[in-house]
Design goal:
This protein is α+β, with helices and mostly antiparallel strands and 316 residues long. The chain folds into two domains: 2-131, Aminotransferase class 4, branched-chain amino acid transferase, N-terminal domain (D-amino Acid Aminotransferase, Chain A, domain 1), CATH 3.30.470.10; 141-301, D-amino Acid Aminotransferase, Chain A, domain 2, CATH 3.20.10.10. 23% of the residues lie in helices and 27% in strands. The strands form two sheets. Strands 7, 8, 9, 10, 11, 12, 13, 14 and 15 form a nine-stranded mixed beta sheet that branches. Strands 1, 2, 3, 4, 5, 6 and 16 form a seven-stranded antiparallel beta sheet that branches. A hairpin with a 7-residue loop joins strand 8 and strand 9. The protein binds 4'-deoxy-4'-aminopyridoxal-5'-phosphate (PMP). One of its GO terms (cellular component) is cytoplasm.
Amino acid sequence: MKCCDGGEFSQGNLNRYGNIELSPSAGILNYGQGVFEGLKAYRREDERVLLFRPEENAKRLKKGAERMCMPSPTIEQFVNAVKETAIANKRWVPPPGKGSMYIRPLLMGTGNVLGIGPAPEYTFIIYSSPVNSYHNHEGGLNLVVEDKLYRAVTSGTGGVKAVTNYAPIYKAKIDAKAKGYADVVFLDAATGNYIEEGSTSNIFIVKDNIIATPPTNGTILPGITRKSIIEIALDSGYQVTERAVSLEELLDADEVFLTGTAVVLNPIASVTVPYKGIRTEYRTGAETVSQKLYETLTGIQSGRIEDTKGWTVEIE
Ligand code: PMP
């Protein structure tokens, strides 16, 4: 799908996966003018294929496009294009329990710009790939707290899914992996005292059965899984608060978990704070709050539990 001066996107085509042509002075290449989304298609036992809350991705892309001074497809254009892509690739959606099909919408400035400024042409493309289930709820993941490299600054672009948000986390994530950690816990850049999120996931703590997660006030991505888990937890009778969560509280929690389209809901086995010489272990496995929330979320996503919220969208 392409758009120029008028700000309206035209209908696009379905093409085989392949390279695209870009001018060397395209806005995306030089200044990172781009936002993207990630969502998944799940196959049910009865072979029907479901998307999870694609309208939420459409709305978030729109917000991101505004922040990055780009026009965006309408919500309807976005959802229809995602559906069309999912239908065309339906045979690649893995069987239930064996993974899902990840769908990646990407909006970018493809027009030529030499100075900082909006590109005169924009392209919206969607591609997809089958992915394995990332979930490790038996053992849980081991995380490390990063105190030198920050993901997002106040009034920056951390609250939208800008392509450039991922550049600052490369080094932290690669270094963490090299040391055997699954991911990094980023702290707020303003004080360094509060936890923000993982590299591609939101973070929750559970203490005495009360759930808390940092607020999405500009430096944290408003995750769609985060929003869904908050709703599921409230429906299940848990108290949930969106508030600043200090590093001390993280270390004192009973359970910690990450949420995101890729990780779904993944319990955390331990958090290490190298600069304090501390490693804390958490409860994981059966009978935990995170396990109950995981069961409900994946039940709805896979059609195992009736979707009374209208979150799932069947393709075709
Ligand atoms: N934070 C960041 C930085 C992310 O990249 C993601 C993945 N989109 C999330 C949180 C989780 O968001 P969602 O649940 O919408 O996938």
